[in-house]
Amino acid sequence: MSAAILSVAHVGVRFGGLVAIADLHFDVAQGEIVSLIGPNGAGKTTAFNVMTGFLKPSQGEVRFRGTSLTGLQPHEITRLGLSRTFQRTSVFPDDTVFENVMIGLHRQGGGMSRTLLLDALLARTRASERALRERAEALLDWVGLAGRAGEKAGALAYGEQRLVGVALALATEPAMLLLDEPVSGMNASETRIFVRLIRQIRERGITVLLVEHDMPMVMEVSDRIVVLNHGRLIAEGRPEAIRSDPAVIEAYLGQGSAARRAAAGAREVAHA
Ligand SMILES: Nc1ncnc2c1ncn2[C@@H]1O[C@H](COP(=O)(O)OP(=O)(O)OP(=O)(O)O)[C@@H](O)[C@H]1O
Ligand SMILES: [Mg+2]
């Protein structure tokens, strides 16, 4: 295995008396596609919030490309090359898909040089504005929304709206991308297309950490899977090993109907 790009070292998060994460530790190697799975409330989004600086862990630390992320703000972590999408995507519904990406690029600089960004924001020279528009077009093309660029974002299906969030995360030119339930709200064919997109993202050298409840999709796309239950790591390994791991099956069977469907999906894949 190549060197770790991300190391989660004994991270714990408490909310008052609730232990949301306890002693979480795992590495993601450069170029891997790893999934972080677990029943509702297992602590997956909380783990993402720690990795991206939205939450301070009660203990432990996260290292990214050898740098400790302790004490860094979200925008500083993004600048180091770690970017994320959110479980709840919000678009500006009355603006077009293209305008949504342009707004995002103006906000975050879109990975452009500072000078170019300042130009875009202050001088709005034709050249810099054109560069930004070309960048937005390239991003929409990458995530498969080029044909919808002129439509109001609010008119897109929920699953397609999530792709706008992916485009904005990619706009920061990350070395690693964290995706929080990217295919929720997508139908089967949209999900298949999204699996291809994840693979293309990895082919471009971006490491991927995925949180997802769609077990067939997780089993298909992941090199490795890390499983959380009640904030604790209960299993880690290749998809073949995870789908037959008794502790994982038990964790999913003990939960509500969504988790039972997810477990059933995993078994279907196992027996396919
Ligand atoms: N800001 C917060 N304050 C208090 N409790 C929180 C907070 N954020 C999360 N929690 C609690 O921490 C636990 C882990 O939540 P988290 O959102 O990380 O789970 P999850 O694995 O992402 O679940 P889901 O699959 O439903 O998205 C849950 O019990 C949740 O209620
Ligand atoms: Mg979550």
CATH superfamily of the domain at 4-90 and 175-188 and 212-271: P-loop containing nucleotide triphosphate hydrolases
Which structural class fits the helix and strand makeup?
A: alpha/beta
By CATH, the topology of the domain at 4-90 and 175-188 and 212-271 is: Rossmann fold
How many separate helices? 11
Overall 3D geometry? Answer: globular
End-to-end C-alpha gap: 29 Å
Which stretches are poorly predicted, pLDDT < 50 over at least 5 residues?
Answer: none
Estimate what percentage of residues fall within beta strands. 15-25%
Radius of gyration: 19 Å
Would you tell me the overall average pLDDT? 89
CATH level 1 name of the domain at 4-90 and 175-188 and 212-271: Alpha Beta
Largest sheet: 6 strands, mixed
GO molecular function: ATP binding
Pfam family, one: ABC_tran
Domain ABC transporter: 6-255
Organism: Methylobacterium crusticola
Secondary structure elements and pairings:
Blueprint: E1 4-15, E2 18-29, E3 33-37, H1 44-51, E4 59-64, E5 67-68, H2 74-80, E6 82-84, H3 97-108, H4 114-123, H5 126-142, H6 158-170, E7 176-180, H7 188-203, E8 207-211, H8 215-221, E9 224-229, E10 232-237, H9 239-243, H10 246-253, H11 257-271
Parallel strand pairs: 3-8, 3-9, 6-7, 7-8
Antiparallel strand pairs: 1-2, 1-4, 4-5, 9-10
Helix pairs in contact: 3-5
The structure holds adenosine-5'-triphosphate (ATP) and magnesium ion (MG).
